[in-house]
Amino acid sequence: xxxxxxxxxxxxxxxxxxxxxxxxxxxxxxxxxxxxxxxxxxxxxxxxxxxxxxxxxxxxxxxxxxxxxxxxxxxxxxxxxxxxxxxxxxxxxxxxxxxxxxxxxxxxxxxxxxxxxxxxxxxxxxxxxxxxxxxxxxxxxxxxxxxxxxxxxxxxxxxxxxxxxxxxxxxxxxxxxxxxxxxxxxxxxxxxxxxxxxxxxxxxxxxxxxxxxxxxxxxxxxxxxxxxxxxxxxxxxxxxxxxxxxxxxxxxxxxxxxxxxxxxxxxxxxxxxxxxxxxxxxxxxxxxxxxxxxxxxxxxxxxxxxxxxxxxxxxxxxxxxxx
Length: 323
Description:
Elements: E1 3-7, H1 11-27, E2 31-36, H2 43-48, E3 51-54, H3 65-68, H4 70-81, E4 85-89, H5 91-100, E5 111-116, H6 127-141, E6 146-149, H7 152-160, E7 169-171, H8 189-199, E8 207-211, H9 220-230, E9 236-240, H10 245-257, E10 264-268, H11 273-278, E11 282-285, H12 294-301, E12 306-308, H13 314-318
Parallel strand pairs: 1-2, 1-4, 2-3, 4-5, 5-6, 6-7, 8-9, 8-11, 9-10, 11-12
Helix pairs in contact: 4-5, 5-6
């Protein structure tokens, strides 16, 4: 039996993007396992994978525990399970895993595939941060069999900086969208009306939606400040997504300070994203950094206009007349 190990820094990445990959390979007869910090507490992950492995690391690339504790865990699991492919995602997990397996790369077992969901160095990024992440990517490229990139800027950057040889680069435009699930005709009108009822607003009142993790680089503060400039009491804004609790509280405080608290709804993690999108007149994504944003793809599938910042990834999707 072929064996695949999917590794991310946190289980939210698996839950949000990678479950279809696990389902596909298990259907094909593979053993598919997952590794992330706290993954054993993720019920969806437990159901989707044959086995899950917890690992101790943080999203901070400068945290010393990333290189002190995690590599040994990774090496022990790989030695025990003898995986054919190790598929890494997100910067910390991708670097630390490849560092841990650097001695095996010449042996050809396991094959190491890295999907970059948007390099953390990018045009317009902070110079010091760009230099740090570019250096790490170039170093870890020596321990990578294949690099998968999901937007044109990253594809050109990978070639320009020779992160891996060109023959090892694979361009894949995003992680895909389930067109049956994100289909305009798949959501009953009653469910869309239920969104208005939940929020306590009239269906004729405009509703804007942002679907994004609550972290600083998503720039929720820009959405709130722009929304406040409308000075329209009949317009409403819904913010879907979970993440950093401190950042979420800061945004709630900002909404209060701007006098728009009664028009802004912090929805947290939601499973009814297609319904929320269809209830909205437009979706918003004002990040400073993206790979190929799934929320934009989902909105376009549902024929909902998108307002987004002119950045890598979002630009790929909204070029021309697309948004």
